[in-house]
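Supplementary notes for students who missed Thursday's class. We covered one full example, reproduced here. Read the sequence, then the structure, then the short commentary at the end.
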Amino acid sequence: MFCKSGKSLFCEQCLCTCPVPENNNYGLYIRSLKRKVNAFSTYDYDGSVRVCIKESKYGPKQFAALKILAYKGAVNLQTNHKFYEHFTAVPVPLNKRKFRSRGFNQAEIIAKIVASKCGIPHNPELLKRSKETDVQYKHGRLARYENVSGAFAAEPAQIKGMRILLVDDICTSGATFTEAAKTLYEAGADSVRCYSLSRRV
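Structure (token representation):
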């Protein structure tokens, strides 16, 4: 499917040639709170990585390929243990319409694998969608921030004092991560960091 050899979803050569960014670490900025958010991505959103993430919702083989890629991503993240130590993995929630269509949240699958491999807790209930939003790819960079404004909700009683590692499949403009992190900080989180399996640069 993704490997032209036809022997597997990803052969070792495919995995070794998945596009990796020059710098896995980068920063996002929450203007309203004047806070920087540290972020980390394993792959560039290109080539076989792009195909895998886009196709993962279309069948069991594609879904299995995403899990393989997420596992390799988690292994890569392990080398940066100070980034996630004492944090709880929380997936960026999918809107209800998309969840009904796919039957699963890619971010939650990735978060489970990251949590298991890195030995940290995983809690998909800490961040909720508070409104439906349009798909981000239809919008330009600035419009993406407007599109997700107010899209998330979190309970202060659950969040106060926590260190949260937000997890998603792709980071493009950073708008979704930034809005989600803002929501968590406003609910009392002690620290928020972001991990995406891939990043579009």
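Commentary. The longest helix spans residues 60-78. DSSP finds nine helices and seven strands in the chain. If anything here is unclear, bring it to office hours.
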